[in-house]
Amino acid sequence: MSADQVVALGGTSVELRRRQVWLRVGIPVGGVALVIISILAITLYSERANRNGVMGLSDDLLSGLQARISLEVSAYFTPATRAALLARDMVARQSDADSRAALEAFATSALRQTPQIDAFYSGDADGNFLMVQRGDAGGTNTKLIVNAPGQRFVETVHHDLDGRVTGREVAPDDQFDPRTREWYQGALKTDDLFWSGVYVFFSRRIPGTTAAVRVRSADGLERVFGVDITLQALSEFLASLKIGSGGRAVIIDNSGHLVAAPDAARILHEQNGQLATVRLDQLGDRILTAAYDRFRVEGYGHRVIKVDGVSIVTIASRLRARSLDWSLLMVVPEADFTGFVASNGRTTLSLSLVVIALTSVIAALLVRQGLRADRTARLLLDRGRAIERQSLAFAGLARQSDLFDRSHNAPIQAVTRTLADITSARRVSVWQLLDNGRRLHCEGAYELNATDHIAGMEITRAELPQFFAALELGEEIQALDAASDQRTMELHRILMHNFNSRSVHIVSVRITVRTVGAVILEDANQISEAHEFVLLVASMLALRMGDGTEVSTEARAQLVVGTVPVPVGERSSASDLVLQGLDGASIGADVFAAVAVMVVKFSDVAALAARDIEGVTTLADRVAALLQDIAAEHDIPYMKLVGHAVVAAAGFVPADTNAIVRIADAAVAIREGCLELFDTCGRPSSFRIGIDCGVALGSHVGRAPRLFNLWGQAVRTAELMADSSPGPGAIQVSEAVYARLRQNFLFRLRGNFYLPHVGSEQTFVLGGRQ
What we know:
Blueprint: H1 13-92, H2 96-113, E1 117-124, E2 129-134, E3 140-148, E4 151-159, E5 165-170, H3 182-188, E6 194-195, E7 199-200, E8 207-216, E9 222-230, H4 232-240, E10 248-253, E11 258-260, E12 268-271, E13 274-277, H5 286-298, E14 301-307, E15 310-318, E16 326-333, H6 335-398, H7 410-423, E17 427-434, E18 439-447, E19 458-460, H8 465-472, E20 477-479, H9 489-496, E21 504-511, E22 514-522, H10 531-545, H11 553-557, H12 573-579, H13 584-587, E23 591-602, H14 605-608, H15 619-633, E24 638-642, E25 645-650, H16 659-680, E26 687-701, E27 707-711, H17 713-723, E28 731-734, H18 735-741, E29 745-755, E30 759-769
Parallel strand pairs: 26-28
Antiparallel strand pairs: 1-2, 1-9, 2-3, 3-4, 4-5, 6-8, 7-8, 8-9, 10-11, 10-16, 12-13, 14-15, 15-16, 17-18, 17-22, 18-19, 20-21, 21-22, 23-25, 23-26, 24-25, 26-27, 28-30, 29-30
Helix pairs in contact: 1-2, 1-6, 6-7, 15-16
């Protein structure tokens, strides 16, 4: 079994290679993916656990703060309420005159000891009123209203800190009546302590509330005793609390009006010309307003709300302070508690990225190492297969005992075929330099999928000067695009263009420092694996070409690889007809046995539209006129211009034995005339000419006027000669034409070509008359 016969178990070699690549790449990449997923899962779990823990602690903190505020409010109002109850008990056991003096003395002492109390006062059903109010510089102001019928008396007495009278004011126009006040009316309705709503004290212009209680004196009269309590200290207390970095707490009454807030100045606003407390939703604070709205809907409790996309923790609770119907509302951004969690999460994630990066680098190294190992294994396997194939090829060449005998061409067939198999080349040809390096002779060429070998083609230094110069340097020539490489573009135009080859690899055959030939491989896909083999074959060919002798042209004409040359002039017309499935006897006058056909092909269609220097006529017009003149001059009866090709023919009657000569002269004249026309228009020559002589079919077709049409083997062969012409302006002729004209014209052997229905045949380049 050869090395290239590989049995794939469980699938094709491509599928196995793809599976292996997936394993090499998929496992490390999957490992990195698992690491990333694990890190993300751990990070998310840690973040969620820390967040829940922090939120639990925040609830405890806020609950503790809530209890502290409730305790503070209760402690704030307890001394004032106790003072009100003590005053009530004291006044209730004394007469009117005595109670007035006792109340004044008790109030003065209580105002000094209790800063939140602003005033003590009492009023009775007759409209009599006594008020002891906090004055300036620690003093007191006592207001007395005696509301006797026809003898109303209103007096205010000012005392300093030591109790000395500093001034008196009598206000007969003062119409104050305690019986109209909320604290008085409310106290008469209950036996317990009555609390008024929050309002702005008239004299001090600060918010406060009044605690009032009904009292019956010893003389049987009912009085109402009240205590004014300011709320400014509560606002100062709330302002002193540190609730996160952006949290705050407010106290509101049951109507939503502010009782206390960190910013005490915002509690009051002017309404109908008087100061009043504002409602919470009038502050313009979106967070407090949103929390208050949720409180009104859902009641007391802890909750998290969204305000402008920001999570806010809110607590709404009832204040446990006597019979006050107030509520505490606290708001704090959730980020104040969980900000460090998010920051730590980002830090942890950043550190995790380092781990991911290191893991990715390790995975990439594993992938690279695995793929490199697989690539090395494949290269070794391919190398082993290549070595085995080359060994088999060497064995095959070793069996060619006459490899170095230049009189035998069969070994060259084996060499070219072996090189084509080893390198997967489309065409392999072996060339020898002759005439001191002036021409290259094709010893043999093998084309992929071809049935025959060809040989005998020659190219000269005049046709390929740059290629010959590069070849004689002895260096290998490798051109991926032969048409664009300065060293090979001439070779591509003459040899490779018609074969549609793109890349070329050329190995010089050298003896010491002298180049004696070349091996040309076209479109070789596996040249790197077989490079040493090609060099070794080139060295073997050097032994064949290095004896210093040259085979004559006639001998070389007999060394056509894989074919037996047709004797000159003996192409059988009947044979062509048989190959076409036709019988000459049945076709009659439409069969022409020896027609000389010339085909001229213009490859640059755009050049035909170019105008001359005067800009009067196009190149196509001038070429057509030239062709008409040449046809008339050389008696060419058939000439037709079809697109960018011209078909001319002569020799339709057996008596016209000079037709091929006239066609050849016409071809030379067309070549010279077209070269001049193209040069006049400043365009590069872009035409090729082919000539053949043989069987053709022709007849008049269509209705009047009927047109004469010519077709057949000679037309096709002439067209092939034009298509494969070695260069612009060259005239390539078939072997049949060469046999008829070699006595009168100069020719150069071009090489051996395969012609459909004819086989391998030599072609020649027509130079001109001898």
